Amino acid sequence: MEFVIKDVMLFRASVEGLKDFLPIASLLVSNEGIRICGLDASHVGLVDYFLAAADCTKANIGMPFKIDVHTKVLSLILAPISAGDSVTLIYKNDKFVVECFNAKMSKKAVYEVPTLDVDTDRVEIPEVEYSAVVSIKTADLLNVVKEVSQFGDTIKMRLDADGLHMSAFGDYGTVNQTLENTEDRDMDLNNDNESVEVRYSSKYINTMIKAGSPISQYMKMEFDPSVPLRLSFKFGSASHFITYLAPKADEN
Question: pTM of the full predicted structure?
Answer without folding.
Answer: 0.91
